C-alpha cells in the first residue's frame, strides 16, 4: 500500500476522531491531508522509499493565530504527538533533524512561505518567475482529506499551474536553450573531439526539452529524480521518454552518433508538431530557435513579452 493511502487511513482512524473529540469547534477551520515533500506525496513511493522519512502520519494545516491561537495550536501538537506510533507495520518517529517538519501540525502560512515566499501563497504576476516548479508542485501534489473551510483548496487552485503568459515565456526560453545545446552544439563539440562536452550538450538539450513537454502538458516538472517517472504519465509526448533515455545513456562513438542526431531531429519534430497543434507557434519551419521566438510573440502581456526571452528559465 502506498503512502497516501496509509496516511488517509491513519487520519480516518485516529486523526479525524481526535479532532472531533478534542477540538470539535475547529474541525471546520483546519485542513488535513498529505502534501509536500517526499515520494509518497506524489504517489511514487515503493519498497525502496521506506528506507528514510517514511512513516504513518498526515499534515494538519492551521489558519492564522486570529482563528487558532498559539495555545490551541500547542494543544493540537500534543494531541497529534499522542496518536498511535505504530500503524500498518510502520513506526512514527521523532522529527528528523534533516528534512524539517514534513508531517504533523503546521501553520499553513509557514508552509506556504517556505514553498512560495508568501504566507498566503497568492503569487502576483512577476513572482511566478522566481519560484521553482518543484515547490509549486509540493503545494499542489498529494491529497486533501479534510478542508471544510477551503483554506487549502483556495491556494491550491490558485497555484495549480502557471498563468498562460508565464507558461509561454518559460516555453520560449527552454526552446531557445534546447536549440542551442542539441542540434547546434552537440555536433560542434564532436567535431572538436570533446565527447564529454558533447554528452553535456545532450543533457542540456534533454533538460530543456523535457521542461517544454511538462509545460505543454500544463504540469509542473518535479524534482529531477522523478522526472522520467512523471513524464511517462503525461498525456502529451510521453512517448519521447525512451528517446531522451537513449540520448542520455548511450555513448558518443562513431556508430552511435548518427543515430543520436536522428533522435534529436525526431524529438524536435514532435515538439514542433505539438506547438503548432496547440497554436503556440506560427513559425513554418523546423528551426527550433524560430519557434522559440514565435512562442514568445504569442504572449499577451507586453511587459512579459518584451522581457529577455531567457528571463523565465
Structural class given helices, strands, pairing?
alpha+beta
Classify the fold: give the CATH topology of the largest domain: Beta Polymerase, domain 2
Strand fraction: 5-15%
Give the biggest sheet: 4 strands, mixed
What Rg, in angstroms, do the CA atoms define? 23 Å
Give average pLDDT, whole number: 93
What does this structure look like?
The chain has 2 domains: 156 residues, Beta Polymerase, domain 2 (2-Layer Sandwich); 143 residues. It has 12 helices and 6 strands. The protein is elongated and about 70 Å long. By secondary structure, it is of the alpha+beta class. A hairpin with a 2-residue loop joins strand 3 and strand 4. The strands form 2 sheets. The chain has a 4-stranded mixed beta sheet, with helices on both faces. It has a two-stranded antiparallel sheet with strand order 3-4. The protein starts with a helix and ends in a 7-residue tail after the last helix. The chain is 50% helix and 6% strand. Helix 6 packs antiparallel against helix 7, helix 6 runs antiparallel to helix 11 and helix 7 runs parallel beside helix 10.
Amino acid at each position: 500500500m502506498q503512502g497516501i493511502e496509509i496516511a488517509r487511513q491513519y487520519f480516518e482512524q485516529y486523526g479525524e476522531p481526535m479532532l472531533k473529540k478534542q477540538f470539535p469547534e475547529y474541525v471546520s477551520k483546519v485542513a488535513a491531508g498529505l502534501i509536500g515533500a517526499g515520494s509518497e506525496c506524489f504517489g511514487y513511493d515503493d519498497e525502496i522509499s521506506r528506507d528514510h522519512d517514511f512513516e504513518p502520519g498526515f499534515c494538519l494545516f492551521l489558519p492564522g493565530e486570529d482563528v487558532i491561537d498559539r495555545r490551541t495550536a500547542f494543544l493540537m501538537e500534543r494531541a497529534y504527538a499522542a496518536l498511535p506510533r505504530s500503524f500498518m507495520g510502520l513506526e512514527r518517529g521523532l522529527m528528523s533533524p534533516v528534512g524539517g517538519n514534513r508531517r504533523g501540525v503546521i501553520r499553513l502560512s509557514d508552509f506556504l512561505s517556505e514553498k512560495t515566499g508568501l504566507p498566503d501563497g497568492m503569487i502576483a504576476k512577476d513572482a511566478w518567475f522566481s519560484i521553482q516548479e518543484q515547490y509549486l508542485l509540493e503545494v499542489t501534489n498529494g491529497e486533501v482529506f479534510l478542508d471544510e473551510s477551503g483554506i487549502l483548496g483556495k491556494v491550491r487552485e490558485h497555484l495549480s499551474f502557471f498563468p498562460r503568459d508565464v507558461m509561454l515565456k518559460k516555453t520560449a526560453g527552454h526552446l531557445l536553450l534546447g536549440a542551442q545545446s542539441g542540434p547546434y552544439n552537440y555536433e560542434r563539440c564532436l567535431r572538436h573531439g570533446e565527447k564529454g562536452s558533447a554528452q553535456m550538450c545532450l543533457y542540456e538539450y534533454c533538460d530543456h526539452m523535457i521542461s517544454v513537454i511538462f509545460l505543454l502538458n500544463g504540469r509542473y516538472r518535479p524534482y529531477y529524480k522523478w522526472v522520467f517517472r512523471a513524464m511517462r504519465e503525461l498525456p502529451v509526448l510521453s512517448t519521447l521518454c525512451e528517446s531522451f533515455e537513449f540520448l542520455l545513456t548511450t555513448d558518443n562513438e562513431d556508430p552511435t552518433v548518427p543515430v543520436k542526431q536522428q533522435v534529436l531531429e525526431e524529438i524536435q519534430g514532435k515538439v514542433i508538431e505539438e506547438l503548432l497543434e496547440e497554436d503556440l507557434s506560427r513559425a513554418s519551419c523546423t528551426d527550433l530557435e524560430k519557434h522559440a521566438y514565435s512562442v514568445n510573440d504569442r504572449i499577451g502581456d507586453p511587459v512579459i513579452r518584451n522581457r529577455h526571452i531567457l528571463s523565465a528559465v
